[in-house]
Amino acid sequence: MEYNEIYDLESCALFVSEHIKYEHLWDPLTLPKYIPSPTSVLRWQAGDCFDMSIVLASLLIGVGYDAYVVIGFAEKRICLADEAHEPLVGHSRSRTSQGSSRSKKAQIKVFSDDAKEESVYSVKQRPVLDSTFVMTRDKFDRLDQELTKKEQEAPAMLIEEEEQSVQEEDEYEGQRVHAWVLVRAGKREMVDNVFVEASTGKVVPTNHPGYKGIEAVFNHQNYWVDMQRVDEPKDISFALEDFNKWEFLFISSMSKDQRRNSIEDARPNRSPPSSPLEGKRVGTGNRRPAGQEGGAGQDDQRVEGPEEVAEGEHILDLPPSWVDKLFIDREIFLRRYAEESGEPKRTKDYKKSRVEHFAENSRRDGMTEMITLYSDLARTNMTEIQEYFANRKDKLVSRFRYFRTGKRIDSNRKEHMIFENFDPGRPDALMKLVEKPEGREFTFYHKATLDGMVNRTESFTRNRDPAKPVALHKVIETFEGHQNRLTYRSITFEPIEPNTDAPPMKQQIDHPRKMTEKFERNPEVPADKDIAKRTFFTGSRPPRIHLIFHYGPGRITSSTRTYITEKNLSGDEFSVQVRTEQLAPGRG
């Protein structure tokens, strides 16, 4: 096939597990009566473990792997492709914990005795002052959290015990027929033999405890029956060339040395027989009448080399393949998933989590994957939702929503925190957005912005009534590479009472209470004329502007200047207060 994803073991196995909808065997104790061709399975996008394993083995053989379909027995969860008891692997399970409020003792740096001896003038550490009220409050908070945690874990423990009891009470334990794929070492830089589960796409070692036994393996060339008397697959040798451990069915696909050994073992005077084909005449297809010169029948009675099959001993020919060349249309390949609930998607349940995959460009919002994390095994109390997107106009690539855990389960409760990440290309150059109850934080691709803005943080004052709008409290902006050497700007707005209505947002922005700007040092301007910090006190009476200039070389003080506007009966009066650095050159 022309798709690069098929040429790697892990990605190929994952594609088969997602592209074909898994159907378990109707009778878990018997082999299926019919095996459809891999071409039909790919067209149907549905099949059981045998169908999916044959498709996967065919694809792997086509790209150079030494792959075989294994017929054997497995545990119930593997046969049903049930991964609800396994933890979610390969994804960011949860945001890094910020840690709880603890005593400041843990933050004090502890010096060793050697360091104390080296430092003669060591600084005496200040004692840590703990509030009895705060310690008591924290103690009750911890007790409340522990009780809440126990209440949440109690039903989860019961569910886990029920799951374990159900697993132990499987009436068909060790007898469930299953098929999977064996990839032997040697080709494509494979170092070890591995099993590949076609229903889930997992690659596991051959000593995986979920597989209980092996009856036979086969590929496009031969069929081998396991003759080893071992209890578990981990003790089985996969040296198919060893005829004492594996009994072959077709001899035409074997090497010259293998044929010679098989012919010696198949002599009539050999006792006891080791092959079920020995002394039996098996009908073969596509033979010409014996004795016809140049006929295929004459060639079929002989083995390459000087050895010949004895008269009356016939081997089974490998029948021609009835399978067409495997092909997947590009549109179907890009759609990837089988139909589920009327759309191409795939849903898998894991321990305390659920993963939903969507075909790219199949949803209006561009979502390709959604991971929902829960605090309980019953998957009822959400704690986190991870959403991933592709090909969105606003360049959104991921969104993480976090919920507060509590005793009550409410699926409609509002998110406690939201993280959004964006790819480059937005007009506003937004890279990351964090929304919290107390504010929002914007991070930008500063090299793509006109003013070089790196970060913008907005703090809110929320009304006690959640239905009422929030009010801006403070805005902090940082810059890098600004044309005016601006590095920092903060705007503080008039505070409001928690139980009052917030004024319109535009009115707040037009009438701030305080604004501060900070600038980098300009080496081309004298320090006492280069502004380092500029503050506008518009909410104070009288309003004023306060300037702080940069420090000069070797100076510990800087010049300042204050502009004050006062109102009187005749109108506004403007005054200036200047404080010059006393040790500046040319002064004093």
From TrEMBL:
Region (Disordered) location: 259-311
UniProt GO cellular component terms: motile cilium
Bias-annotated ranges (Basic and acidic residues): 259-268, 299-311
- The Dynein regulatory complex subunit 7 MORN domain covers 345-576
Name one matching Pfam family.
MORN_DRC7
Query: Which UniProt keyword terms apply here?
Result: Cell projection, Cilium, Coiled coil, Cytoplasm, Cytoskeleton, Differentiation, Flagellum, Spermatogenesis
Does Coiled coil appear among the keywords? yes
Q: Which SUPFAM superfamilies match?
A: Cysteine proteinases
Q: What residue stretches are annotated with the CEP76/DRC7 peptidase-like domain? A: 176-247
Q: Name one GO biological process term.
A: spermatogenesis
- Report which superkingdom the organism of origin falls in: Eukaryota
Where does it reside? Cytoplasm, Cytoskeleton, Flagellum axoneme
Q: Which InterPro entries match?
A: CEPT76/DRC7_peptidase-like_dom, DRC7/lobo, MORN_DRC7, Papain-like_cys_pep_sf
Family of this protein: Belongs to the DRC7 family.
List the PANTHER family. Answer: DYNEIN REGULATORY COMPLEX SUBUNIT 7 (PTHR35249)
**Listed name of the protein:** Dynein regulatory complex subunit 7
User: Which species is the source of this protein?
Assistant: Guillardia theta (Cryptophyte)
